Amino acid sequence: MLKHWRFGLKEYMHSLFPSSQLAELQRWIPELRLEHMQPRKPGVRAMPIGPKGELLEDFIFDQPSRNFLNVRSAPSPAATSCLAIAEAIVARVLGPN
């Protein structure tokens, strides 16, 4: 747990000081302003951790056999990514064209 203390501290800072989160969000949406943001209760999100304690990315695809495909770490709201996930699944199941 102590290995990723910076990540956890940053998440707490974003909850306590919305302007710190705004600065990061403006990297992708420069026109976003603090008045566009609304306060919400912070939630808890489980982060996938690899065997060596490293943080893993979302949407991990495992295909142990031709007839079995597992999608791990699909966080809510995965629905916003459902079409991209579907395309990745179809590409893995059908193989290259």
Description of the molecule:
Helices cover 34% and strands 11% of the residues. The protein is α+β, with helices and mostly antiparallel strands and 97 residues long. It has a two-stranded antiparallel sheet with strand order 1-2. A hairpin with a 2-residue loop joins strand 1 (60-65) and strand 2 (68-72). Helix 1 packs across helix 2. The longest helix has 13 residues, at 82-94. 0% of the residues are buried.
Helix content: 25-40%
User: How many whole angstroms does the radius of gyration measure?
Assistant: 18 Å
In what range is the share of β-strand residues?
Answer: 5-15%
Task: List unreliable stretches of 5+ residues.
Answer: none
Can you tag this structure with a few keywords?
alpha+beta; 3 helices; 97 residues; 2 strands; single chain; extended
Q: Secondary-structure blueprint of this entry?
A:
Elements: H1 5-16, H2 18-25, E1 60-65, E2 68-72, H3 82-94
Helix pairs in contact: 1-2
What's the short version?
With 97 residues, this protein is α+β, with helices and mostly antiparallel strands.
